[in-house]
């Protein structure tokens, strides 16, 4: 019908309707209509919708979905290809080589932009899901990348079938023999996909967690979890890339529990010189009683000790008999009461001041407590303030910190020796 109309139109123009002239006219009409269609779709329709989206600032996500990810643009290219294919079927003779060529090209065009449209749709969904608390921790990036990889493979098979003019079913059946090769080629993406699902299902890791994995030199925040890798921004601002499946096969430390608990642990000790450990004298007790932190403890302890010694009839003239207050025990009690009244120590978590096994470096007194903040800088400041105070008050209890001799100590010994020789 359309071929006859073209022939009749050429006769009116006194042009002989040969096969070549009919083909040229038909191609000219196809190109002309394609140009007009492109102008209408991309300049008028898409432009009008973009202007409408810009005037509605509250619909930010809708605007981003349609335009910033090129979702609507790619859809219009598919519509444009369909219009060209319909034109070719109407303007060209059925079964002609040109029609077959144009049909093949438009099919490949539609296939290409369908894949790109799928990619844009997945990107939009991934961005939208980041605003939902229930889907934020899911390994959607890895899953979507797996879908994209599958779509590319399917599109490649269909494209080959279009070019050779065979059914894609034949090609898919031939791929069965290549399964082992494909599994070997795509081993890392498949393992990463499975690992991502396991990490999400078991709530082992999500974006934003503090991950520590010394084997890979990772110590920082997780910024991305994709099909094959996990990106960690270390605290020195470097980026460490870890294979996703390594998080399943190897061990790692996730600090999320600490961050969610609201407290961060302090576990640090100081070493007391053993030779400075001894009993408190009455003068020491009177002096230390002036401390609000220690007054109640000393009064209660002295009452218990006095009652025990009187009940046992202990001869206190010998230090081996009876009970007495020690400076190191009182020091431990002071630190414990000090931490219980500290405004930045979490009082609902474990709080201990304990004496560890004696070593050649002295008697370790360890503080085991939790701050009421998990912010790194604040945690370090609180910990430093506590130990600044601890180091400063050690001499008040008649104790000395253990410290290996320094160059200054050796020089002092040498000077003392020289002075004694001169004298």
From TrEMBL:
| Domain Mechanosensitive ion channel MscS C-terminal: start-end pairs | 338-392
Provide any one GO MF term from the record.
mechanosensitive monoatomic ion channel activity
Keyword annotations for this protein? Cell inner membrane, Cell membrane, Membrane, Stress response, Transmembrane, Transmembrane helix
Specify the superkingdom. Answer: Bacteria
Which GO cellular component terms, listed alphabetically, does the Swiss-Prot or TrEMBL entry include? plasma membrane
Subcellular location(s): the record lists: Cell inner membrane
Topology versus the membrane: Multi-pass membrane protein
Q: Which GO terms describe its biological process?
A: cellular response to osmotic stress
Instruction: Note the Gene3D superfamilies from the entry.
Output: 2.30.30.60
- Show where the Mechanosensitive ion channel MscS domain sits: 189-256
Instruction: List all membrane-crossing ranges.
Output: 20-41, 108-126, 146-164, 170-186
Record family assignment: Belongs to the MscS (TC 1.A.23) family.
- What is the protein name given in its UniProt record? Mechanosensing system component YbdG
Origin species: Nitrincola tibetensis
